[in-house]
Structures are given as structure tokens and as C-alpha cells.
Amino acid sequence: MTNEKQNEAKVSLMEENKENQSDGGLGLEILQIIKESQQQHGLRHGDYQRYRGYCSRRLRRLRKTLGFKMGNRHKFIGKKITVEMLSDNRYLLLVLMEAERAWSYAMQLKQEANTEPRKRFHLLARLRKAAKHSEKLEKLCDSHRVDAKTKLEAQAYTAYLTGMVEFELQEWKLAMEAFNKCKTIYEKLASAFTEEMAVLYRQRVDEISPNIRYCAYNIGDQNAINDLMQMRLTGGGGGMMAEKLESLITQARTKQAATMSEVEWRGRSVPVKIDKARIFLLGLADNEAAIAQVTNEETKEHLYETLLAECRDTIQAVREELKNETKQRERSSDADNGKVSNVQFLHSYLTYIKLCTLVKRNESMAHTLQAKLKEPEADESKRGPRPQDLIRLYDIILQSLAELSTLQGLEDDHTFQKEVSLKTLVYKAYRCFFIAQSYVLVKKWSEALVLYERVLKYAKEVQSKAKSLNNSLKDLPDVQELIAEVNAEKYSLQAAAILDTDDTVEVPSQQQVKDNTPLCKRLETFRLDPTLVGKKPNLVQFPPDFQPIPCKPLFFDLALNHVAFPPLDDKVEQKGKGGLTGYIKGIFGFGS
Q: Where, if anywhere, are coiled coils annotated (predicted)?
């Protein structure tokens, strides 16, 4: 709630600055406000319910601030915003938030309508409500109190929501007119203001363009389908248009599927009777061409995933047909067990397409990781790609190639088996190369050198076998480049191994650091110990160990027995001169 108040204060400050313009008119950055609110309150993740709740809370705060309450808790009293009340641009913001709340509710219902079709009626009602609020906003902005830019933005916003309503009603001509009006206004605004504001307007134009093309196609413009396919490749047409575009492509392929009867592969013609398989095989060439044209890695990954999902669904449909055919064969007595059936061969063909697509996708990901691996790390705190990541990708590629060699109907196709074994050797060489790279990182020079020799062995074997299969290497990575790179790495490795002779003793000392050896006991050697700058640095051992110290010496007076004392007889006689009286006094202590 605190962040929302801060955002609202920022927007309000911006709006108040607009009021102080030279013409004295009220201003409201309609597109900027709704875009910032949408991005900060749920629409970045497609959460329309969260955004609707934000609009409701903001409406309540605005009404309370402006003193524009609809009655009290006991009774509702409706109020309308009139032109005479436009002393503050927050009245315009109030109407805008009402339109946004209705629109977000409609988009939420659109997501739920995929599983509950009855919600489509409620969706249309909320869209009409949003368009009605936008029309009210446009009428308020027609006042002389509002500046020209806000009037244009209000007209574009109304045209956009009107086009959305007509689009859902499949009134293609009316929707196209509304979207074209919206596009024209935003293009004019983009050319009239600063670059920062122009970017926002151009983004809105890019969002509207797929809808216009789709309406044109439904009106009868057959050239629009090519533009839509191009927008699909560039990642345009998200949200509502994505589903429409996919259904449009499926419809176009369904019409063409009626003319397709068979497919030829590996010298054998196979009849295609399953509609799902026909539709998939018709679109296969278009999908592969689309993937080849794309340069953005994220879009290419999305197209690969879409193609693989369609292929899996098609294989499942063929598998169901294959089960029915197997049951019929078991019932019939004249079953031909020697030859692979047409349905089984079609299943093998579709599985071949799936596995080859997997290989191409993983190879594309491997190329991207290799490029990132050669780049210097900009941020050391973030984990960059490592050779282990590439090893995993090549493992998946080799697994797919192993499945290719076991496809039914191709066991006796020796040319096919040779091609698969040749591809396996190529990817084994690359996998072995990156295993060697991972050993180089941990300074295991001998293991890395042996693996580089293994890479050269695989590469030379590929070159010798490729002479009989000329067309098999055109889609594979260049082996000659790999050989040159391995030779360079070998020389670098040998030099690093020679220079690293003094550092070989450092490995146990690293382990001693892990064994809690304090710093005071290893001052003569330099080690990078990250714990020294942490909260508990291991500097000295505390409490220290006990150490033996010498005890305090004992002295014995042995010379006393050999010392001759002077005679004291004269002194003793003087004490005795007191007589008997002195003696008695001495005994009883009287004389002391």
C-alpha cells in the first residue's frame, strides 16, 4: 500500500505540473499513467485481477481526496462529473480509472472464458462498460479547460477500447476503423513530442498493428496473412492476438489438408488419412522456414517448442490409430508380420521429425552458449555458462541420435544408419572437446590432453567416412574448424602445464585452508581465502593450545652444615650475671 501511495503521489505531481502550462489548460498523460500502473500492478505477469483491485483502491482514494463520495455506507447517491467541475485534473483521472477497472475485469474474464464459455457474455458487458467510460472521458476533454494533447490522447483511448469491443463481436470492419483511428492519433503524437514520449506511443502502435492486419484478413485481404506470419516471427501480437493468430493458421492449414493424400519419405509413399497428421505435415515446411528466418534466440526457442508440441500431439493421434490397427491385425488370420504397415511407417516418420527437431534445437542452444563462453565475463557475481552446460546438451543430442537408429522400418536402410552413425561421431567429438575444456579449468592437464587426442581421432574418422556420404555433412558443425581449435588448445595446454609446475604444490595448501588452518600458521605462502574478509575470519587459533614452560626453581642450603660460627660464650656469661632473682624474672617474663 505504501508503494501505491508513492506512485500515486508521483503521478499527481506530474499532473499538477501539466496544469501550469502556458495555455492554462488541464493536462493528463493518459497513456503514460495507464502503462506505468499496469506494469507496476500485475500486468507484467498477466495478473488482471490484481490490477483490477489496484484500480478499485485508487478510485476510492481519489473520491475521498476530492470529496466526491457516492453517498454513505447506508445509501448510494449517484453523482456525475460535469465540465463545470473540472478545476482539478484528478476528476479526469477518476473517469480514466473507472474505464481501466472495467477493462481489466474484461481481460480477467477472457482468461477464465477458456474453461467457462458462459463468462464470455460478462466479458462483453464489461468491455462495453469500459468503452462507455472512455467516451465520457472524451466528452469531458472536449472542454476548453483541457489542453490539446490530452484531447488527442482521450480520443485515441476511446478508439482503442471501441475497437476492442468490435473485435470481440467479430465486427471486423468497425474494429479496423477504430484501430486505424487510434493508430493515426498515436503516430501523430509520436512525431510531435520528445523521443522519450515517442517511444511509448510507438509501442502502442506496435500493439495495435496485428489487430488491424487480422481484421483486414477477415474482411478479405489475403495479403494480410503474410504480414501476420511475419509479426509472429518478430514476437508481435501478444495477448489476445496470439490465440487468434494460432487459430487462423490452423484454419488455413485445415483447408489445405483436404488436398493432401500421401507423403513420401526414404523412397516409400505413405498415405496420410489422419487429419491431425495432414495439418502438421502441411505446416512443417512453413515452421522450419520461420525458424530459419528468426534471429532472436527467445523467439526461435518459442517456435521450436511450438513445433515440438504439435509434433507430440500428432504422434499421439497416430499412436491411437496404430493401436486400433494392431487389434484388427490380431483378429485377422492373414496378418502380414514381415512388412511394416503404413501407419507404423508414418509413426516412424513423425518420430524422426521430432528427434531431428530436438537435435536442431539443442544444437542452436549449444551455439548460443559457445558464443557466451568465449565472451569475457562482465559481472563476476553472476554465474556464466560453463563447459558442463554444453556437455549436457550434447548428451541429449546423442540420446536422440541413438533413438533414431532404432526406428521401425529403417533397420535395413544402410544409408540411413550410416548417416546416423556419422552424425553421432561428429557430436561425440564436440562432447569430448567440452569435457576436455572442463578438465582444463581444474588444471588436469594430462586428462585434458588425452581427451583432445580423442577429439582428433573422432574428427579424422568423420572425414574418412564422409567421402562416401557427400550430403550428410551439410547440416552438421564444421569438423575442420574443430580440428584447428583442438590443435591450438593443445599447444596452449602444454605451455600452461609447463608454467604451472611451481603451482602443483599449491593444491594441498588449498585443502589446508579448508581444514581450518589459521592465517598465523601460513604467513609464508599467499593463498586466496575468501573467509578472511567474512564475518568469521580464521586468523589465529583461539583458545590457544597449552605449551610446556619451566617451573619455579627450588633452592636447598647445603653449605650450612659446613659453616663454622664464631663462639658466643662471652655473651652467654653476661646474661647469667643477674643471679637467682634475674633467673626467676626471666622464667616468669617479668624482666622482658
A: 308-335
